[in-house]
Amino acid sequence: MDQGAVRAAGRMVAHFRALDAEIGAVAMAILLVVAEAGEIGMKDIAQRVGVVKSSVSRTVALMSRTGHKGANGHDLLAWREDPADRRNKRVFLTRKGQDFMRQLTGLLVVDTAEAGAAETMPAPILAVAAVPLNGHASH
């Protein structure tokens, strides 16, 4: 097992937990999917993560400025109405969310002392977010 990759994954989880000690895998996956897409509809997030749209809506609310049910949120995500389908919301990173993701990707540098170099790992980590959490690919 690549111990450098394991340490990098641990740093990623610690970065999320520093934001919110109770953060779950779905919230992490949603943030990663939005970061990778730039802007994406809630229906598409639900398909990519493998959860129902109501779970995406709740999680996006938690990760927004106002939070879920009016509580203070994390201000990492925001949304706007989709001009093509007003029932769908388009989700994107806020400036704070972009900063969070820059910090996160900076933590994903794997120390490869054997090779005498460092290699970055954001692509494989973000690829994990494309696999639905229920283990079944959506079609």
Automatic annotation (TrEMBL):
One Pfam assignment: HTH_IclR
SMART domains: HTH_MARR (SM00347)
Residues of the HTH marR-type domain: 16-121
Gene3D superfamilies noted in UniProt: Winged helix-like DNA-binding domain superfamily/Winged helix DNA-binding domain
UniProt cross-references to SUPFAM superfamilies, sorted A to Z: Winged helix' DNA-binding domain
Domain of life, per lineage: Bacteria
GO molecular function annotation: DNA binding; DNA-binding transcription factor activity
Protein name (Swiss-Prot/TrEMBL): HTH marR-type domain-containing protein
Gene source species: Aerophototrophica crusticola
